[in-house]
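Hi P.,

Sorry for the delay on this. The queue was packed all week, but I finally got your sequence through. Input first:
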Amino acid sequence: MIMSSSDKNDLMKQAEEHAATQLEKIKQDRAERTKRLQRTGIILIIAAVLLIFTAVTVLHL
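Then the structure:
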Protein backbone atom coordinates (compact mmCIF):
# COMPACT_ATOMS: atom_id res chain seq x y z
CA MET A 1 0.00 0.00 0.00
CA ILE A 2 1.49 3.29 -1.11
CA MET A 3 0.54 6.36 0.90
CA SER A 4 0.58 9.87 -0.44
CA SER A 5 2.59 12.57 1.27
CA SER A 6 -0.54 14.28 2.61
CA ASP A 7 -1.80 10.96 4.05
CA LYS A 8 1.54 10.46 5.79
CA ASN A 9 1.43 14.01 7.15
CA ASP A 10 -2.12 13.51 8.43
CA LEU A 11 -1.14 10.23 10.05
CA MET A 12 1.90 11.84 11.68
CA LYS A 13 -0.23 14.73 12.94
CA GLN A 14 -2.74 12.30 14.46
CA ALA A 15 0.08 10.35 16.09
CA GLU A 16 1.58 13.53 17.57
CA GLU A 17 -1.81 14.64 18.91
CA HIS A 18 -2.39 11.21 20.43
CA ALA A 19 1.07 11.24 22.03
CA ALA A 20 0.47 14.72 23.45
CA THR A 21 -2.88 13.62 24.88
CA GLN A 22 -1.33 10.53 26.45
CA LEU A 23 1.54 12.58 27.92
CA GLU A 24 -0.92 15.03 29.49
CA LYS A 25 -2.91 12.13 30.97
CA ILE A 26 0.28 10.63 32.43
CA LYS A 27 1.23 13.99 33.97
CA GLN A 28 -2.22 14.36 35.54
CA ASP A 29 -2.13 10.79 36.90
CA ARG A 30 1.32 11.40 38.39
CA ALA A 31 0.16 14.65 40.03
CA GLU A 32 -2.89 12.91 41.51
CA ARG A 33 -0.75 10.02 42.78
CA THR A 34 1.73 12.45 44.38
CA LYS A 35 -1.09 14.36 46.06
CA ARG A 36 -2.61 11.10 47.35
CA LEU A 37 0.76 9.96 48.73
CA GLN A 38 1.25 13.29 50.51
CA ARG A 39 -2.19 13.02 52.12
CA THR A 40 -1.47 9.44 53.19
CA GLY A 41 1.85 10.52 54.71
CA ILE A 42 0.20 13.33 56.68
CA ILE A 43 -2.48 10.95 57.96
CA LEU A 44 0.18 8.44 59.03
CA ILE A 45 2.15 11.13 60.87
CA ILE A 46 -0.98 12.30 62.69
CA ALA A 47 -1.85 8.69 63.58
CA ALA A 48 1.68 8.11 64.92
CA VAL A 49 1.52 11.27 67.06
CA LEU A 50 -1.86 10.24 68.47
CA LEU A 51 -0.57 6.73 69.18
CA ILE A 52 2.47 8.11 71.01
CA PHE A 53 0.28 10.54 72.96
CA THR A 54 -2.07 7.70 73.93
CA ALA A 55 0.82 5.45 74.99
CA VAL A 56 2.38 8.19 77.13
CA THR A 57 -0.99 8.97 78.73
CA VAL A 58 -1.68 5.31 79.54
CA LEU A 59 1.81 4.73 80.94
CA HIS A 60 1.45 7.70 83.30
CA LEU A 61 -1.80 6.39 84.77
